[in-house]
Design brief:
alpha/beta, Rossmann fold, Aldehyde Dehydrogenase, Chain A, domain 1, Aldehyde Dehydrogenase, Chain A, domain 2, 9-stranded mixed β-sheet, 6-stranded parallel β-sheet, 26 strands, globular, disordered C terminus
């Protein structure tokens, strides 16, 4: 194998797209790291640029139609970022449209037989260059950590299309190994077999769908009793495998036991038929086999929150957990068997993205429930939309809290520091942003710093630890790179970057210090992107409409919080906040076991999920009768205060 790295359209004008996913900073850093690898390992590099001229006018037809001038020769927008500037001897290939003319001859002329493609946009010029090279018989690899698109659903379809044709997406780590070895072929890593566990689950579902509600309720309660004896072992296992502090692992296991009791109480309505005066009856029927895909951060609560409702409503489940949680996942499957759950009803599939895609695409799967990131959500939408099967997805949050002058500022500081930094910020409901009124900003920030300093961090096996390590070196480095870019672009540190805990700690893992940044630019990457780490961004509001605008400026809408006491401010927040979970005088972190859970905008599909609220992935509704039937969709949120919580519908 003789690889050539090709960087496509990594030019300032293309990178300015606000819809680019992943964000431009992430794509550029990934491409720069890959470029450095290639140069260090003597892999040739070529740069492909869109180059527009005015005489003659060589713009693409749709640019002419829109009056758009981009990537014009000699302009700043035509050039790449400083980290991607070509070195002497690295060829630059100019193009004016999607296609790169004679790419196959160009590659062959350099004595290469393999093209590694990085750049933007995945669904357009990256796709076209890859297909031109593939059609000419070259081996094509896409650099998964160094491509981005402003049409992510189209990009997801491109990924599926490529993989079906042997065009692999490989990480920078995998490419480093590939560059280093002398091989005649590229290893084509195929998904592990998922058809067998799906077939087993399908066979189990045929008898299970007719089981009695009492039997299903009994199963939930038996599992709850088994898990109540496993709280400490699971907490210790999560600390060892994921670096999750012991107290939060224990809290997660206790919540699972409580959730199962709530699920059991809903069993009687699982097969119930409903009628009303309009002359129709409604009955829920199972999908058959539900694919459940779960992340690593809550490795027992999230799986049981998907599996239990699906089974309650008569489905079998094929579950693919995150590869980081292998030991926890296997232990949980053993608990199902100990609780006497029918053999085959819940099947475990281990693996990563490839296995997840194969699972969702299998014809025997009737619905998918997924918790993951934005790109995983687009991939699931593309597969499930093409198959026209139900999809329920929780896709993360970029959660803000407003701190108003009439709030108890010390109480707000304590709760927000905990909500942002406990578990190293590795939960979807963590506070990512604070929007504080200008009149109290200078009083509040020292309180926030002091509250952060009071948190204990270090060994996750210590009962006192609040902040443990990140789940992996790769995840730690991604967060560090995000902060580094923010400090260059717009941010100033409110809390000096700290030191990591002593390396003599028992848990030798990647730590990252709690970080508070001030950034007033609402369009900056550090504001717009979910860090999923111990990073908190502070912004200043002039008045309440400005605070709401800052809160709602991001594309996510999972959770939001308000620290205030004035009733008019509280109700204005309820009416204007674009999030599925709303809290008063609490941080955004955490959730009740039987409250609706889910986000608006790009945080979730549909808007409501969580334990027994997961109707969308648990059953299909059949309606029959006289007259017209109108379905009304409600968006559901939760407002919580110190005295309790209530659900509202709007």
């Amino acid at each position: 194998m003789k690889p050539l790295l090709v960087l496509v359209d990594l030019q300032q004008d293309y990178l300015k797209s606000p819809q680019l996913d992943p964000a431009a900073g992430s794509v550029v850093d990934g491409a720069a790291a890959l470029l450095a690898q290639a140069r260090a390992q003597a892999v040739p590099v070529a740069h492909v640029w869109t180059t527009v001229t005015r005489d003659p006018d060589n713009r693409m037809a749709h640019w002419k139609r829109e009056g758009l001038w981009q990537c014009e020769a000699g302009t700043e927008g035509h050039a790449p970022p400083a980290s991607l500037v070509p070195r002497q001897g690295e060829p630059i290939v100019h193009k004016s449209g999607f296609s790169t003319p004679d790419i196959a001859a160009f590659v062959a002329g350099l004595g290469r037989d393999t093209v590694v493609v990085a750049g933007v946009k995945t669904h357009a010029c990256v796709r076209q260059l890859a297909l031109d090279a593939w059609q000419a018989g070259l081996t094509v690899i896409i650099a998964a950590d160094a491509v981005g698109s402003d049409d992510p659903l189209h990009a997801a379809a491109t990924r599926r299309y490529f993989k079906a044709r042997g065009i692999e997406f490989l990480s920078n780590g995998e490419l480093k190994e590939l560059f280093a070895r002398d091989a005649n072929t590229v290893a084509n890593v195929l998904p592990s077999r998922v058809s067998e566990p799906i077939a087993t689950a399908a066979a189990a579902s045929r008898s299970w769908r007719d089981s009695a509600p009492a039997e299903r309720a009994g199963m939930m309660r038996r599992l709850g009793r088994v898990l109540s004896q496993e709280i400490e072992p699971f907490a210790a296992l999560m600390a060892e495998e994921l670096g999750k502090p012991l107290k939060f692992g224990r809290r997660e296991a206790e919540s699972v036991v409580a959730m199962l009791e709530v699920v059991a109480a809903r069993a009687a309505e699982a097969n119930a038929a409903a009628t009303n005066g309009a002359g129709y009856a409604e009955r829920r029927r199972p999908h058959g086999v539900v694919a459940a895909i779960t992340p690593w951060n809550n490795p027992i609560y999230l799986p049981i929150g998907k599996v239990a409702p699906a089974v309650l409503y008569g489905n079998a489940v094929v579950w693919k957990p995150a590869p980081e949680t292998r030991a926890v996942s296997r232990r949980l499957i053993e608990c199902l068997a100990t609780a006497g759950w029918p053999e085959g009803l819940v099947q475990l599939v281990e693996g990563g993205e490839r296995e997840g895609m194969a699972l969702m695409a299998d014809a025997a799967v009737g619905a998918v429930t997924l918790t993951g990131g934005s790109l995983a959500g687009y991939a699931a939408q593309e597969v499930c939309g093409r198959r026209r099967i139900a999809l329920q997805a929780e896709l993360g949050g970029n959660n803000a809290a407003i701190v108003w002058p009439d709030a108890d500022l010390e109480d707000a500081a304590r709760k927000l520091a905990a909500g942002a930094f406990e578990m190293a910020g590795q939960r979807c409901t963590a506070n990512r942003r604070i929007i504080v009124h200008a009149s109290v900003r200078e009083r509040f920030l020292p309180m926030l710093v002091e509250a952060t300093a009071a948190l204990n961090w270090g060994d996750p096996l210590s009962p006192e630890t609040d902040i443990g390590p990140m789940v992996s070196v790769k995840h730690r480095d991604r967060v560090a790179a995000l902060v580094e870019r923010a400090l260059k672009q717009c941010a100033s540190p409110v809390l000096p970057l700290g030191e990591t805990p002593s390396r003599t700690a028992r848990h030798a893992a990647p730590f990252y210090p709690p970080t508070i940044l001030a950034c007033e630019d609402p369009d900056s990457e550090i504001v717009q992107e979910e860090s999923f780490g111990p990073v908190l961004v502070v912004q200043t509001a002039r008045d309440f409409p400005h605070a709401i605008a800052l809160m709602n400026v991001v594309r996510q809408g999972l959770a939001a919080a308000l620290f205030a006491t004035a009733p008019d401010i509280v109700w204005a927040f309820r009416d204007e906040a674009e999030a599925g979970i709303l809290k008063i005088n609490q941080s955004t972190s955490g959730a009740d076991v039987d409250a609706p859970f889910g986000g608006w905008k790009s945080s979730g599909l549909p808007s409501t999920a969580g334990s027994t609220w997961n109707f969308s992935h648990a059953s299909r509704r059949f309606m029959a009768g006289l007259g017209e039937v109108q379905a009304r969709r409600y968006q559901t949120g939760t407002i919580s205060d110190r005295s309790g919580s209530l659900a509202y519908f709007s």
